[in-house]
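Recall the central idea of this unit: under ordinary conditions, the amino acid sequence of a chain determines the structure it adopts. In this exercise we apply that idea directly, starting from the sequence alone.
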Amino acid sequence: MVSASADFDAVVIGAGFSGIYMLKALRDRLGLKVRVYEAGETVGGTWYWNRYPGARCDSEAYVYCFTWDKELLQEWEWSERYPEQPEILRYLEHVAARHDLKRDICFNTRVNSAQFDEASGRWKIRTASGDEVTGRFLITAVGTLSDTNLPSFQGLERFRGKWYHTSRFPRGGVDFTAKRVAVVGTGASAVQAIPEIAQQAKQLTVFQRTPNYCLPARNGKVDPERVAARKADYDAIIERTRNSFAGFELARMAKSALEATPEEREREFERMWDIGGFIFGLGNYQDVLLSREANKIVADYLGDKIRRAVKDPVVAEKLVPKKHPFGTKRTPLDTNYYETFNKDSVLLVDADTDGPVEEITERGIRAGGKEYEFDIIVLATGFDAFTGSLKALNIEGSAGLAMNDAWADGPRTYLGLAVAGFPNLFTITGPQSPSVLANMPVAIEQHVEWIADCIAHMREHGLTTVEAVPTAQDDWVAHVNEVVGGTLLPLGNSWWMSANIPGKPRAFLPYLGPEGIGGYRRRCAEIAAKGYEGFILA
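Accordingly, the structure predicted from this sequence is:
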């Protein structure tokens, strides 16, 4: 039963991994009065909304979970190496029930605006249904990939068939049997959905703007002995992932790809290819994202893998990336993605060679001057990453400063946790934090625990406001840009670089620290130990 009171110690927006752990930490550890708002019908966040065919996580399940419930780590049994969306949603439902979290969550409720009232030092939060509450602290747990990117395709409203976005699929799914289907996009969601849809559809046409480097997932059941060994070693696993580069038990080789012989590289590449998962990106040679020459060696290897998997050499060439170095765009894990293009019922329409999508017609899609007819169109066009979900909240800080104005030229944060001019606002896995460049639960737990510790510190010392110092924020933004500027990442027109949204200021959105999330974690701990250096506490 959600409290009827309108005044809270903290208001949290979102009830995915971030929101439910933030509620648990503030309510049960600190004894605060907390209200959580969630636009969906239940907990889950991205795992509630993303229910397209084939949706599954691409972090291995044993590290894609909460580590703060030690008993649950031992009790919960995952069915596969990479669980599907329904299983992850069941897990989060179980966590919510086990810790009685739903009583403090308002579901089916979207926050429309949040304003900081300087006289009271409190946030005023309004919902779409007209509710108004206040909170001493406002904490956004809205996710980095939750604001749907729906490109302004001319004529979409005229289409006589059905159309869906991968991030907003119907609860009961969609029956593609004997249907002519289009999938627009070849990012991570499309790479998962295309092989599944192809099994049902009479004809599947994939519209590709930019081909992706995909890595084999090698999904399947995990050997019970390995499961038992991991459960016996969980304390050490947690320590290793928290201090790793990306929140996994993976580390890059302390060697340049250019120092290795061609035979040695081939052996290492084949070893990682056979293991599957992110090891090919995160366990590769140390200079793959630093040196064009080293990167090309990896890219050539992956290009050859694509050419071997796809029988038609013309189609294979369309699927081989030519415009961006490997690892400079999100690298999806695939299961039979490339092999799907060997089906007679699957057609690839490539923007460069066949012509881009020009418009949606009554009967289908016009691309390159040709009309293709469909019964169903699936838009796998991704998200307005990081900033879209925050801007949708219409947040106003001190002196009526709108976040949308403050971020007109791109986001500016301190540690990805706080924003100058917005007192008592915390952004879990916000822009300029490791977030999507790490295993998300590891990034989320670090942020939630840091925020809870900061609030506990304030209460112990009779402090009521915390705010990022503008110069500290400036230094952090400069650091984020300096670090990524020394890598190949800016060469990819990725959503990491804000490049997927027309008119969005080009900026690198996450934080790629020299030591990854482990180094970032230590930096945040040092800042807290120095009395929250870079923050004004009053």
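The first helix runs from residue 17 to 29.
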